[in-house]
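Quick one: structure for this chain?
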Amino acid sequence: MSGPLDAGAFPASALYGTFGPDRVFVKAPSAANVSPAEGYRFFGEVDTDGDSGELTVRPREQDGTVLFTQVLRPGRVGQ
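Got it. Here's what it folds into:
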């Protein structure tokens, strides 16, 4: 999940199952609303390939370290 700038960091909670969500990556603190000094502040990057239409999504740490990479291909349901 991505949120607004400087949203609080909270432990992972149960997903609301109405639309069939799936967790593919989680990095969350064990306590609620931890200080920014403890980390858990991330940003994301999305690259679009104009030829194939693929989206490459990368959440990153504050220092730019990639946490996870997911490639989304057009026309694929349930990637």
